[in-house]
User: Which sequence fits this backbone?
């Protein structure tokens, strides 16, 4: 797959938000600082690379390919705890603090690794795939938040306010992504 | 919006957002059964370990052990599925381990401290059963909408009734409509009571 095709795939058809149903809390993307975005892209590229290399050089020689997801889940969990412990030493966070948003981001990293990790053999493509998937996820999240902001100005019926209209908007966005992908993806083969 | 109302909306959002990856993947009865049972096993293991481990271990260690128990339970479930039907295992194994990182399972892994919280923790097991059933029923419902039939076989002949219901886009829209419908019914019930 070409780099252009890779970026196109992860931005639309393979988008983490619409393919894996990973909807973050509202306005997370709007509050994201440039430093957070860069760190997230880096973490995502790293997750895909670690998963890909672990699969190829550790699990496959041992014949344990089907254990890849659980090994990666445990790797992510321990990494998350280690980062929180380091942040707590620096006084910036409480270790082991329960936080839905950080766990949702951990889920995104798992999804990125599962999507990109087993797909490529080149380290550069693994890193590029991971970063493209994270960028696609952040862009789709921002797009969904903008839709929700616009819908705040409309008289949405009471039972649809909040979660239902957010899910329906995400569904319509997923339909649009699938349509664009079906129409144009075949133009960027290889 | 009042603070209490906003908190309720946030809580319902967290529960829905936590389950949504599993609901999106559950596009048929067979996938729904596999994911629902794996969720039930992992959730119950996490809740039981969080409840039964001694309090003196501390919250952080109990949380870690509970998540490990959930991962082990998901692995066990995956092994059983692999023995029963290797094709369903191949189609679902990535998502079966995703269960360990979902918010309801992580929520169940937090050790209850007070007596009130411990009583609430036993409710966690019942809540897990409810979540698992919703994943299975949602899968069956989507299969019926997309193909007009419900079958336990993953390779059942597919007709096309509303094919987009089996796609992630269909899952999102159906979740939204179901939640909105449920809310409308609850509102109507409250209005008729008053």
Assistant:
């Amino acid at each position: 797959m070409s780099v252009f095709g890779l970026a196109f795939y992860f931005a639309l058809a393979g988008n983490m938000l619409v393919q894996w149903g990973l909807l973050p809390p509202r306005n997370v993307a709007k509050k994201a600082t440039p430093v957070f975005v860069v760190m997230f892209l880096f973490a995502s590229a790293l997750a895909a690379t670690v998963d890909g290399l672990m699969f190829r050089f550790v699990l496959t020689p041992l014949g344990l390919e089907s254990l890849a997801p659980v090994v990666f889940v445990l790797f992510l969990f321990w990494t998350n705890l280690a980062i929180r412990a380091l942040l707590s030493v620096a006084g910036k966070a409480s270790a082991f603090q329960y936080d839905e948003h950080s766990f949702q981001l951990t889920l995104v990293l798992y999804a990125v690794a599962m999507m990109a990790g087993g797909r490529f053999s080149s380290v550069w493509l693994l890193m590029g795939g991971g970063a493209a998937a994270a960028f696609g996820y952040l862009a789709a999240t921002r797009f969904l938040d903008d839709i929700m902001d616009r819908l705040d100005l409309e008289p949405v019926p009471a039972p649809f306010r909040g979660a239902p209209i957010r899910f329906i908007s995400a569904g319509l966005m997923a339909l649009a992504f699938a349509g664009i992908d079906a129409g144009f993806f075949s133009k960027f083969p290889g | 919006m009042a603070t209490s109302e906003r908190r309720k909306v946030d809580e319902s959002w967290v529960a829905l957002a936590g389950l949504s990856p599993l609901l999106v993947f559950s596009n048929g009865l067979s996938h729904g059964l596999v994911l629902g049972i794996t969720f039930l096993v992992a959730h119950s293991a996490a809740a039981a370990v969080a409840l039964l481990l001694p309090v003196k271990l501390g919250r952080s260690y109990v949380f870690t052990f509970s998540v490990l128990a959930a991962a082990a339970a998901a692995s066990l479930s995956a092994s059983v599925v692999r023995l029963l039907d290797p094709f369903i295992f191949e189609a679902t194994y990535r998502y079966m381990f995703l269960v360990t990182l979902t918010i309801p399972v992580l929520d169940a892994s937090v050790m209850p401290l007070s007596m009130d919280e411990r009583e609430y923790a036993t409710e966690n097991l019942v809540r897990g059963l409810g979540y698992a059933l919703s994943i299975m029923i949602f899968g069956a419902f989507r299969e019926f909408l997309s193909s007009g039939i419900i079958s336990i076989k993953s390779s059942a002949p597919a007709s096309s009734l509303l094919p987009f219901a089996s796609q992630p886009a269909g899952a999102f829209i159906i979740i939204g409509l179901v939640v909105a419908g449920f809310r409308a019914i609850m509102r109507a019930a409250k209005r008729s009571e008053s």
Q: What stands out?
A: The radius of gyration of chain B is 18 Å.
